Amino acid sequence: MTEAERHKALRKAKQELKRRLAVPCPHCAVVQVGPPPRMLLPQELCKVHGYRDPRPRRPEDDYQLIVSGAIRFE
């Protein structure tokens, strides 16, 4: 796998996880008027407000393990 293919696979895996697991930052949803709120994965940090999603991170939701082949989407 070339570096470009690996990068594309990482992006695709992260997009799939965001589609399945992401929740909007509660501070962005209340405060911001124009742009949509930032979508956070478990334990991800909102760079604007410093809010960290309190849900625990599970190994089966790690996009780097999914790309390496250690874990597969179900």
Helix and strand content put the structural class at mainly alpha
| Count of strand segments | 2
Mean pLDDT: 81
Q: Taking Cα atoms only, what radius of gyration do you get, to the nearest Å?
A: 14 Å
- In helices, the fraction of residues equals 40-55%
Count helical runs.
3
Distance between the termini: 23 Å
Instruction: List segments where confidence is low: pLDDT < 50 over at least 5 consecutive residues.
Output: none
Biggest β-sheet, characterized? 2 strands, antiparallel
Net shape = elongated
Beta-strand percent range? 5-15%
For the record, the count of structural domains works out to: 1
In short:
This protein has 74 residues and is mostly helical. The chain contains three helices and two strands; from the N terminus they run H-E-H-E-H.
